[in-house]
Design brief:
The protein has about 120 residues and is an alpha/beta fold. Helix 3 links the parallel strand 3 and strand 4. It has five helices and five strands. A five-stranded parallel β-sheet has the order 2-1-3-4-5, with helices on both faces. Bound molecules: magnesium ion (MG). The site of magnesium ion has 6 residues, from loops.
Amino acid sequence: MKILIVDDAESSRVQLRRDLESKNYSVIEGIDGVDGMEVLAKNADVRLIITDVNMPRMDGLSMAKKIHELPNGKEIPIIVMTTEVGAELKARGKEAGVLAWVTKPYVTEKFLQAVAKIIK
Ligand SMILES: [Mg+2]
């Protein structure tokens, strides 16, 4: 099962990849919103997107909105993973069709359970 992670911080991508691969998910990466959309366009079998919010070129919420406007894009669940906790941002996330909002640092076991539930 293929998961796309989008984050401009390499350390975050490394940690997420390690956690997801421990459950045998196949992980691909984007380094910002623009890159994430390009990677998604080349990988029609992505089952879940996990994205950061603050990134250069295109932030995670703008990317989520754009993805959900694509044909078939609505079906792809998107999880936001960020240190941001602002209510206004969360409301924007909801509007963009974000399914879940995970605050960093996350609890690995709990997070992986949520992932399994979303893409089962
Ligand atoms: Mg960031």
